[in-house]
Amino acid sequence: MIALEDYVIQFQDEHFAALKAQLLANSYSKVFVLVDEHTQALCLPILQAALQEIELHLISIKAGEAHKNIRTCQFIWTALMAQQADRKSVLLNLGGGVIGDMGGFCASTFKRGIDFIQIPTTLLAQVDASIGGKLGIDFGQVKNSIGLFNNPKAVYLYSDFFQTLPQKELYSGYAEVIKHALIQNSDAFTQLVQTTAPEASDWKRTVSESLLVKKTIVEQDPFEQNIRKSLNFGHTIGHAIESLSWETEQPLLHGEAVVIGMITECYLSHQLIGFPEKQLNFVTPYLLSRYPKYDLKGLDPVQVLRLIQQDKKNEHQQICFTLLEEIGAFKINVHASDALILKALDYYNNL
């Protein structure tokens, strides 16, 4: 268990006994469960078996980042209204990052806020969305540009759900594990490099160690005014590439795009703040050994720059990057010219 200021993260809650106790103790008027077609088929039966004594009201949406938008929120709010949800209702978000981000956002805004509990079913959601209270949706091709900060009443992590994931989804989440090591812990990164098969990891240990990195950072800066920006390493360029990839025949998963972001931002780190060339030449081959190279030539670099310029972390019309001084040490609010960003994309293309 990881205890935060106003909620706890539970690991491997056997038969969801703690979740059941929490729901009963709070005497909720109705318990809603938000799923997509994948978690409805693969994960919901596990939850239903554990919560047989509690009536669950289902809301099912289409899976995928393409549906993380205001139209889907309207569908969720309408479903809550139709099933007579009130402010003593609770929403259980059973799914990956899209379900958690959007479900939490909908719960936080429905009737000025109802309780929600996160049950992330992907590695990405467990290591990236369990701590920090970031909720929201995509708008105008810009990821997570509409949203708010609000914490759940609890988070329940159950690594057996990983058995339902395709390998690509597992590796997408593993990219965030790598990111946490790169910004905070050089020894942890070395251990990851020595891991021959990420899918054979001790997931409880891997997830808990990664979450402790994020916990340390978020507790110091809950609203992303300073040190929490370090968690955006790889995401400034990565988010732009991810959004544009959805319009191609080869859409990227979040973690796959973040890997491209980490490689290009390691290049920027070398050019701008002295990230050692030896480390650049250590990190880049490792990432490419885990994640197949993606052809960026099909993306318009002008559009990449346009989306980067809309990034929510920018200030005073300047693009703000989190870059690496060395493995395990970061610097926030580093500015890069458009020309240098394009060179970083060329660096990746020419690998």
Automatic annotation (TrEMBL):
UniProtKB keywords: Amino-acid biosynthesis, Aromatic amino acid biosynthesis, Cobalt, Cytoplasm, Lyase, Metal-binding, NAD, Nucleotide-binding, Zinc
One biological process term in Gene Ontology: amino acid biosynthetic process
One GO CC term on file: cytoplasm
Reaction it catalyzes: 7-phospho-2-dehydro-3-deoxy-D-arabino-heptonate = 3-dehydroquinate + phosphate
Alphabetical list of Pfam families matching this protein: DHQ_synthase, DHQS_C
A GO molecular-function annotation: metal ion binding
Domain of life per record: Bacteria
Subcellular location: Cytoplasm
Cofactor list: Zn(2+); Co(2+); NAD(+)
Protein EC: 4.2.3.4
Span of domain 3-dehydroquinate synthase C-terminal: 173-314
Pathway stated in the Swiss-Prot or TrEMBL entry: Metabolic intermediate biosynthesis; chorismate biosynthesis; chorismate from D-erythrose 4-phosphate and phosphoenolpyruvate: step 2/7
CDD domains, A to Z: DHQS
Domain 3-dehydroquinate synthase N-terminal: 59-170
NCBIfam families with a match to the protein in the record: aroB
Family membership noted in the UniProt record: Belongs to the sugar phosphate cyclases superfamily. Dehydroquinate synthase family.
PANTHER family reported for this sequence: 3-DEHYDROQUINATE SYNTHASE, 3-DEHYDROQUINATE SYNTHASE, CHLOROPLASTIC
Protein task: Catalyzes the conversion of 3-deoxy-D-arabino-heptulosonate 7-phosphate (DAHP) to dehydroquinate (DHQ).
Name of the protein: 3-dehydroquinate synthase
